[in-house]
Specification:
Structural class: alpha/beta
Helix content: 40-55%
Number of helices: 14
Oligomer: single chain
Shape: globular
Largest sheet: 7 strands, mixed
Order of helices and strands: HEHHEHEHEEEHEHEEHEHHHEEHEEHEH
Number of strands: 15
Strand content: 5-15%
Length: about 425
C-alpha cells in the first residue's frame, strides 16, 4: 500500500457524530428522533414549484446558471431580507448561494480565517464549527452558555457570563460565531445579549458569523433579532440561512450567505474554485417559493409563520411525552430540538462502546429501546464536554404519530424498570 499521508489540516479528525448515529439508527431500524429532518410532506406549493420547473419548456433550466446564485433566486432573497434587515441588499454582490448553509459556513472559514486567528465558539454549538476552524488553521476558543441554577427547565436559564466573554477577545480574535436560534439548545438570544456580543465585536474589530438557519422557528413570546440589524453591525456580519430549514426540504441542500461585498467577496473566491455553481432547477424552485411566501407575509397561510405555530404544538407535545417517562426537557424558544437531562437515570451502559456516558447511553437506547437521539457532549469543546454529557437531543419536527410511537417504547422500558 502506498504510504500517502492525509493533509495536516485534517489531522486528528474522525467521523462526525452524524456518521455514527445516522448509520446506527438505520441499521437498527430505530425511530429516528436524532437527525433534524421532518418526516412529513413539504409544503404543497414548494413541491409543485419544483415539479413545474422540471417540466419547463425552457432548455436552459437544466444547464449551468450564474455561479454566485441563480438571478431569480438572489433577487428574491434580496427582496425578502431587505425587509428583515432594513437594509437595501444588492442581490448581485451581497448574496451568495451555496450547497446548504454548510457550504456558506465552509466558505466563511476558508475565506476569512487564517492560521493563528482565533474564533470564539459559543457552546453548545453545531458540531462543524470546530473542525472548519481547525481546517482553516484557526484556533477555536470555547465559551459555554451555562445554567443559572441547577434545576433548569428553559433555555432562558442558559446565559453567557459577560466578564468571561469579554476576556475571550484579544488581538488574535478574528471572529465569533453566534447560532441564533441555537442548535441544539433552542435558545433565542435577546436584544441585550446580542448587543453585548455586538459591542465587543466593534470594540475589537471582530467579524460576527450569524448562523440563523432556524430564523422562522421562533416561538410565542420570543422575537428573532438579527445581528446585522444592530447599530454598525451590518458591515461586520455575515448572515447564514437555509432553504432546507425554511421550507422543510433539507434534502435540497441550498443555503445562502448575506453580507456586505467587502466580506462576501472572500466567500465568492472560495465558492468559484469549489462547487462553482448550485443546482439550477432547485434554485429556480426556491425562488418561486420565496416569491409566493413574500406575497403571503402577514397572512395565516404564510409558511414562514405557520410552521412555527405548528412546531410550537409539537414542542409542547414532545415535552409532555418526555415528562411522562420521568425525563426533564429543557424547553426551547426556537429551533426544533429539545435537550433532555438524563443524568438521574441509573442505566448500565458501559458495554456500549467508547466515549462519554451520553454517547454510550444513546447507543444503548437506540439498540435496546429502538429510539435514536443524539448525545449532546458532541456539541461542546473538549474542555467543557462534561457540561453536555448529562443531556441528549430529541428532534420534534416529526409527525405526532412518530413521537407517540417513540414515547410508547420509552414508556414500556420505564414500566418494566419499575415493575
Amino acid at each position: 500500500m502506498a504510504d500517502i499521508k492525509p493533509a495536516e489540516r485534517i489531522s486528528g479528525m474522525g467521523p462526525s457524530v452524524w456518521v455514527e448515529f445516522t448509520k446506527l439508527a438505520s441499521d437498527t431500524k430505530a425511530i429516528n428522533l436524532g437527525q433534524g429532518f421532518p418526516d412529513f410532506a413539504a409544503p404543497e406549493h414548494v413541491v409543485k414549484g419544483l415539479s413545474d420547473v422540471l417540466q419547463s419548456s425552457n432548455p436552459l433550466t437544466h444547464q449551468y446558471t450564474r455561479g454566485f446564485g441563480h438571478p431569480r433566486l438572489v433577487n428574491a432573497i434580496a427582496a425578502l431580507y431587505s425587509k428583515h434587515m432594513s437594509h437595501d441588499i444588492n442581490p448581485m454582490n451581497e448574496v451568495l448561494v451555496s450547497v446548504g448553509a454548510y457550504g456558506s459556513l465552509f466558505y466563511i472559514f476558508m475565506g476569512l480565517v487564517s492560521p493563528g486567528d482565533e474564533v470564539i465558539i459559543i457552546e453548545p454549538f453545531f458540531d462543524c464549527y470546530e473542525p472548519m476552524t481547525r481546517m482553516a488553521g484557526g484556533t477555536p476558543r470555547f465559551i459555554a452558555l451555562k445554567p443559572k441554577n441547577e434545576n433548569v427547565t428553559s433555555t432562558k436559564d442558559f446565559v453567557l457570563d459577560p466578564e468571561e466573554l469579554a476576556g475571550m477577545f484579544n488581538e488574535k480574535t478574528k471572529a465569533i460565531i453566534v447560532n441564533n436560534p441555537n442548535n441544539p439548545l433552542g435558545k433565542v438570544f435577546n436584544r441585550e445579549e446580542l448587543e453585548m456580543i455586538a459591542n465587543l465585536c466593534k470594540k475589537h474589530n471582530v467579524l460576527c458569523i450569524s448562523d440563523e438557519v432556524y430564523e422562522y422557528m421562533v416561538y410565542e413570546g420570543q422575537k428573532q433579532i438579527r445581528m446585522a440589524t444592530l447599530p454598525d453591525m451590518w458591515e461586520r456580519t455575515i448572515t447564514v440561512c437555509s432553504a432546507g430549514k425554511i421550507f422543510s426540504v433539507t434534502g435540497w441542500k441550498l443555503g445562502w450567505a448575506i453580507a456586505p461585498n467587502h466580506l462576501l467577496n472572500s466567500l465568492m473566491m472560495v465558492h468559484q474554485n469549489c462547487v462553482y455553481t448550485c443546482s439550477t432547477v432547485l434554485q429556480e424552485a426556491v425562488a418561486v417559493s420565496l416569491e409566493k411566501e413574500m406575497a403571503l407575509l402577514g397572512k395565516p397561510e404564510c409558511y414562514l409563520t405557520s410552521l412555527a405555530e405548528e412546531l410550537n404544538g409539537k414542542r409542547d407535545k414532545m415535552a409532555d411525552l418526555l415528562r411522562d417517562i420521568n425525563l426533564t426537557p429543557i424547553i426551547p424558544d426556537g429551533g426544533y430540538f429539545i435537550m433532555t437531562d438524563i443524568s438521574h437515570l441509573d442505566v448500565d451502559v458501559e458495554k456500549y462502546g467508547e466515549g462519554r456516558k451520553d454517547f454510550k447511553f444513546v447507543r444503548w437506547m437506540t439498540k435496546e429501546l429502538g429510539v435514536a437521539t443524539i448525545p449532546c457532549s458532541a456539541f461542546y469543546g473538549e474542555e467543557h464536554k462534561a457540561l453536555g454529557e448529562r443531556y441528549i437531543r430529541f428532534c420534534f419536527i416529526k409527525e405526532n404519530s412518530t413521537m407517540e410511537k417513540a414515547a410508547e417504547r420509552l414508556k414500556k422500558w420505564t414500566e418494566e424498570r419499575h415493575a
